[in-house]
């Protein structure tokens, strides 16, 4: 059984954590345009970036960053 990212949840996570895109840019060093590309599903982030973002948002792991879909 294999899974892949479906939809990025950054917009929801900004609301849930109270951290803005600008704040996340400052915390991670990722550009605001790059964060926007992820949030609008124009790009899928790699594992290292997902981990960096999860740490900055104080998430327990990378799972909440995306909804996940099973690929059969």
Automatic annotation (TrEMBL):
GO molecular function: DNA binding
Entries under Pfam families matching the protein: HTH_26
Highest taxon of source: Bacteria
Domain HTH cro/C1-type: 9-58
The protein's name in its UniProt record: Helix-turn-helix transcriptional regulator
Species annotation: Paenibacillus roseus
